[in-house]
Amino acid sequence: MKFEDLLLETGGFGRFQILILAMLCLPRINLPMHFLLHNFLAATPSHHCAIPHQEAFVNLTMEEVLLISIPRKPDGTFSSCEMFSQPQFHLLLNSSLQSENKSIIQPCQHGWVYDHSQFTSTISTQWDLVCDQRGLNQATATFFFIGVTMGAVVFGYLSDRFGRKTMLLLSLVCSVVLGMLSAASVSYTMLAITRTLTGVALSGLSLIVLPLGMEWVDVQHRTFTGILSSIFWSVGNMLLALAAYLVREWHWLLVAVTGPCLLSIVCLWWVPESARWLIAKGKVKQAHRHLLRCARTNGRKDFAEDMPLTTYAQRIVLQRVYKKMGGSYSYISLFRTPVLRKISLCSGMVWFGVAFSYYGMSMNLTGFGLSIYLSQFVFGVIEIPAKIVMYVLVNRIGRRQSQAWTLILTGLCIGANVVIPKPLTSLRSVVAVMGKGFSEAAFTTVFLYTSELYPTILRQNGMGYTSFVARLGGALAPLVFLLDEVWRSLPEVTYCAVAVCSGAAAFLLPETLNVCLPEGIEDIE
Predict the structure, then answer these.
(1) Is residue 148 located within the same domain as residue 162?
(2) Could you tell me the CATH number of the domain that includes residue 520?
(3) Cα(168)–Cα(310) distance, integer angstroms
(4) Distance between the two ends of the chain, CA-based, in angstroms?
(5) pLDDT at residue 382 above 70?
(6) pLDDT(315) > 60
(7) Which InterPro entries match (predicted)?
(8) What is the pLDDT of residues 120-179, one digit of tens each?
(9) DSSP structure class, residue 518
(10) What is the pLDDT of residue 168?
């Protein structure tokens, strides 16, 4: 007897499951508000070198002061990182003249002046993370995703050992504490450390929420559960754009995106532990109690009334399921048997490509002719129809084909924008939005697909491993932007190549459409 049979006896997919999914959607909304916060937290507004003794130029307009103090770039705009060592008054007579004497051009000596029309303050303006310090600015996102990477290993193991709900609650509490500490940072070092630790804590939410919901639903509603959870990620994307638009100061923006975790903590008290996990750990009595509660909530009174009379018989059934699922496993178990080894290697490649291309696109909100807030909102909006389409596709053509082609099309859209001229902003925006839609469709599918590939006894280990690989991709994605100093289009070419190659790797995975969730390794092999 499989666990799905027990779920059907308790009402299958009913009010109990709907309430669980509703509660678990709250932390899901909060995730992208932190994962994509770098777009606004570390945004770099227009800036130029601070000009000393500016009061001496009272008879000049600001444009003229800049003209004699700041050299121009080839495109005619003022340099952000260089200044003249002495005012070049002759440029007032002919602004088209540019001195060929490089010795009079020097790096900024007195700090920078920032345009505060869009952002009151960001970490870039707070600690001057521009020009030579630009790498530290991008590294903030990398530090966060390194934390998420470490958290994937930690929470993947702990949630299989101590339970899904316990670790989810710990993750939420730590996220609130560390998020508030990040907002109170008084130095870049403090911010880097607290954001890294926040990433560790939030990894628990990313890793546990979907499997916990999936383990309470039957085969027929697994796709719906995965898509619904993913849609609330997109809602979080749009709410991030709204929050960032309303809160332009980075300290308070961190408070605004961390606060909702408190509501999630309150709602989590109602969510039960995974009965699948309890059975796998031999905690049959607790699983029995949660299944009884599920049956009563779903209106299966006949089942609930029979339970006291058939407790012994039901316990025997649960014990049989436990014996089938029992054993001691670790991350090494993911690579011990041939089929499971192939699944782990290929799914790792897919997850890396999905995260690498997704965050590569999500953290590049400029250059499409839209404001940064509108770009964030549109990128969130386009994800919802993409997910609805995926709800149909994964049930029609299967998980494998959907996963492979969404990744490949993501790469092709990124590659297309490499060759489309910059002045064609409307066309570039359309292609970018299409690519973002395919990218999100790939992310939606990979969560659902992976949770179906691994057996219950290794599901959280499997999700922890794949999440670890994905966060490596997320950590590297922001740093790839620095390659534009080698070749302006090199970042986009890199994102394109990785997405296409990882999409090809998805063809090597087995199909899981309409297949019962595997309980033990023998079900996989």
Answers:
(1) yes
(2) 1.20.1250.20
(3) 33
(4) 19
(5) yes
(6) no
(7) MFS_dom (IPR020846), MFS_sugar_transport-like (IPR005828), MFS_trans_sf (IPR036259)
(8) 999 999 999 998 888 898 899 889 989 988 887 888 778 878 888 889 999 999 999 999
(9) P
(10) 92
- Cβ partners under 8 Å of residue 12, min gap 6: 218, 220, 221, 298
Count of domains in the chain?
3
| Cross-strand bridge partners of residue 112 | 49
Residue 119's region, left for phi above 0, alpha for psi from -120 to 50, else beta, is beta
Same domain, 368 and 292: no
Residue 184 has pLDDT above 90, yes or no: yes
Using CA atoms, how far apart are residues 364 and 360, in angstroms rounded to an integer?
7
- Report the distance separating Cα 44 and Cα 34, nearest Å: 18
- In Å, how far are 160, 325, 353, 457, 483 from 329, measured between CA atoms? 9, 11, 27, 7, 41
Which two three-digit tokens encode residue 81?
Answer: 């990182």
Nearest-CA neighbor of 498 among 418, 383, 398, 415? 415
Domain co-membership, 78 together with 220: no
- Both 337 and 319 in one domain: the answer is no
Residues 170 and 243 in one domain: yes
The one-character DSSP state at 516 is P
Is 56 a domain residue? yes
Cα separations (Å) of 407 from 108, 412, 413, 444?
43, 9, 10, 11
pLDDT, tens digit (0-9, with 9 covering 90-100), for 11-56: 778 888 889 888 888 888 999 999 989 989 999 899 999 988 877 7
Same domain, 398 and 506: yes
Same domain, 467 and 484: yes
Note whether 67 and 130 are within 8 A (CB): no
Range of the domain at 103: 47-114
- pLDDT at position 97, please? 63
By C-alpha distance, which of 133, 136, 82, 80 is closest to 105? 82
Apex CA 518: angle with CA 219 and CA 461, to 5°? Answer: 115
Count of CA atoms in the C-beta half-sphere (13 A) of 522: 5
Q: Domain for residue 125, yes or no? A: no
Q: Would the pTM count as exceeding 0.85?
A: no
Between CA 466 and CA 435, with CA 213 as vertex, the angle to 5 degrees is: 55
Taken as a whole, the chain contains a residue count of 525
8 A C-beta contact, residue 415 and residue 496: yes
C-alpha 264/C-alpha 269 separation (Å) is: 9
Pair of tokens at residue 180:
């508030």
Q: Where are the alpha helices (DSSP H) in 215-249?
A: 222-246
Q: Is residue 122 part of a domain?
A: no
208 vs 186, higher pLDDT: 186
How far out from the chain centre does Cα 38 lie?
11
CB atoms within 10 A of CB 484: 12
Domain boundary pick from 327, 344, 364: 327
418: its two tokens: 């490499």
Which residues, listed in sequence order, are joined to residue 26 by a DSSP beta bridge?
Answer: none
219 in any annotated domain: yes
Burial class (CB in 10 A: 0-12, 13-18, 19+), 118: middle
The token duo for 444 is: 């939606």
User: In the predicted model, is pLDDT for residue 498 greater than 90?
Assistant: yes
Asked whether residue 338 falls in the same domain as residue 313, the answer is no
